[in-house]
């Protein structure tokens, strides 16, 4: 996918230096990290957001930090020598998404981050479909019906095997006579 390489009017790319510092410091940027939760990386990002916002109340900071972060994501423009850790971008997009519920973020429109976001949506859709199929396949009513059908088929095969065994036994006794008395 192609994206608009020029920055939105009045926007500055403040997030690139933060991402480069995170890479230099080897900070964990993995979404959903169960060891550290990407805490140090998120502190670094929040510090940069606080610097951009200036001195505001905690409530105002919480409200506006997602907007500032979304604008920072919209300003990212990877170049051949500069690569951003996709996990970090996904983590930041998930952070924005958690604070500002949206389907199509207008702030990210035409940006490289929007391409990452669309890829995340496609992956989410595949996961949701797999989960739906899993839930459907493991529905207790359906599972019990399958078990009952397998049980009936097993009983039918067993009855057929017993019938053939009786027929063979009768045929054998017909050829060889009745069992000998001892």
Produce the secondary structure layout:
Elements (H helix, E strand, L loop, with lengths): L14 H10 L14 H15 L4 H17 L11 H14 L12 H26 L2 H37 L6
Structural overview:
There is one protein chain. The protein is mainly alpha-helical. The chain folds into two domains: 15-126, no CATH class; 139-176. The protein is 65% helix and 0% strand. The chain is built from six helices and no strands. It has helices at residues 15-24, 39-53, 58-74, 86-99, 112-137, 140-176. The protein starts with 14 loop residues before the first helix and ends in a 6-residue tail after the last helix.
Tally of separate helices:
6
Strand residue content:
under 5%
Derived structural class = mainly alpha
> Which percent range fits the helix content?
55-70%
- End-to-end CA span: 90 Å
Q: What is the strand tally?
A: 0
Low-pLDDT runs: none
The overall number of domains is 2
As a whole number of angstroms, the C-alpha radius of gyration is 32 Å
Q: Any idea what the shape is?
A: rod-shaped
The pLDDT mean sits at 83
Biggest sheet architecture: none
Order of helices and strands: HHHHHH
Task: Describe this protein with a few key phrases.
182 residues; mainly alpha; 2 domains; 65% helix; rod-shaped
Q: What is the compact description of this entry?
A:
The chain has 182 residues and is mostly helical. The chain contains six helices and no strands.
């Amino acid at each position: 996918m192609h994206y608009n390489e020029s920055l939105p009017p009045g926007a500055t790319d403040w997030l690139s230096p933060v991402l480069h510092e995170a890479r230099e410091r080897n900070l964990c940027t993995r979404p959903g990290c169960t060891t550290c939760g990407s805490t140090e990386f998120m502190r670094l990002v929040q510090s940069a957001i606080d610097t951009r916002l200036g001195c505001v109340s905690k409530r105002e900071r919480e409200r506006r930090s997602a907007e500032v972060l979304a604008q920072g994501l919209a300003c990212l423009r990877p170049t051949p020598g500069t690569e951003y850790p996709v996990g970090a971008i996904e983590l930041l997009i998930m952070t924005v998404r958690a604070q500002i519920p949206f389907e199509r973020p207008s702030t990210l429109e035409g940006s490289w981050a929007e391409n990452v976001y669309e890829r995340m949506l496609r992956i989410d859709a595949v996961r949701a479909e797999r989960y739906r199929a899993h839930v459907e396949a493991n529905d207790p009513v359906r599972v019990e019906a399958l078990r009952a059908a397998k049980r009936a088929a097993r009983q039918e095969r067993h009855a057929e095997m017993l019938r053939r065994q009786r027929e063979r036994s009768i045929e054998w006794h017909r050829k060889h006579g009745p069992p000998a008395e001892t």
